[in-house]
Amino acid sequence: MTIDLAVIGGTGVYALGELADVETHQPVTPYGAPSGPVRVGQYAGRRVAFLARHGEGHSLPPHRINYRANLAALKALGAQRVLALNTVGGITEGYGPRVLACPDQLIDYTWGRISTFCEEPGSEVLHVDFGDPYTLALRQAVLRAAARAGVSVVDGGCYGATQGPRLETRAEVARMRRDGCDLVGMTGMPEAGLARELGLDYACLAIVANWAAGAGPDVDEVITLQDVLDNVAAAMAGVPPLLRSLLAK
Ligand code: HPA
Questions:
Q1: 6 vs 22: CA distance, rounded Å
Q2: Gap between the Cα atoms of 33 and 72, Å rounded
Q3: Quick check: 145 and 242 in contact, CB under 8 A?
Q4: 3-45: pLDDT as tens digits
Q5: How far apart (Å, rounded) are the C-alpha atoms in residues 235 and 180?
Q6: DSSP symbol at 149
Q7: Considering the domain boundaries, does residue 189 fall inside one?
Q8: Is ligand 1 within 6 A of the CB of residue 135?
Q9: Atom 9 (ligand 1): residue with closest C-alpha?
Q10: 83: CA distance to ligand 1 center in Å?
Q11: Cα-flanking dihedrals φ and ψ of residue 26, to 5°?
């Protein structure tokens, strides 16, 4: 049976509260096991899959996530559209804490992660087009759904994906700003590239948890986990109405 939407939850998002009649799948893929169970259920009358990217108990740091298994599992369950929720730091004006944003570009600063399905000997060599890393139609659907639901979502922006798990230095964030990044997170890649290789529709809804190091009005601010979790929880209030609107027939 097909799935109308798959949602991948990031830091602070370990379940979809409104998911009903939940079936739990523990898929094993040719790439290994995903981060945890895939919960499939009814959401706003549609079939929705949810997967916690870091595991439901947040046991996986960004560089240890099996991004290939996560996406392959969602595809095997019948998902075509994937909405990735990514908790991020904000770099530029307009992307401060508690903002929701739907970026349209990304820069990959990660290293040493398996970033392609062309890894195994004998696998087909793919050079997928990635000029626009997020699927325009899905981005537009998300933005329209947010507008209908009265949820503010910033349209566009560049997501810089860093290796982590440590946060960035001020100099790194300053460089990212010069590069054109508006947001910084640790999980946007290789996920987006792998989704493209699988032919999935993929968009990111970034949840700004904090100003990145040295960004924002108080350049000396120290980022605490509690601030991150509080800001994510506050920004997440917009997500259920947005999802209901996105799924409305
Ligand atoms: N940097 C990278 N990833 C993040 C941040 C940050 O400041 N905040 C939440 N995820």
A1: 14
A2: 10
A3: yes
A4: 999 999 998 888 898 899 999 999 999 999 999 999 999 999 9
A5: 24
A6: H
A7: yes
A8: no
A9: 88
A10: 19
A11: -120, 70
Q: What are phi and psi of 144, to 5 degrees?
A: -65, -40
pLDDT in tens, 39-72: 999 999 999 999 999 999 888 999 999 999 999 9
**Residue 249 CA to ligand 1 centre (angstroms):** 35
Residue 85 φ then ψ, to 5°? -95, 125
**Maximum pairwise Cα distance, the chain:** 52
Which CATH number does the domain housing residue 38 bear? 3.40.50.1580
44 alpha carbon – ligand 1 mean position (Å)? 31
**Which range (17-21, 67-71, 107-111, 207-211) has the least confidence?**
17-21
* Alpha carbon distance 248, 52 (integer Å): 23
Question: 162 CB under 6 A from ligand 1?
Answer: yes
Residue 238 lies in a domain: yes
Residue 207 lies in a domain: yes
Range of the domain at 151: 5-117+133-248
pTM (whole model) above 0.85:
yes
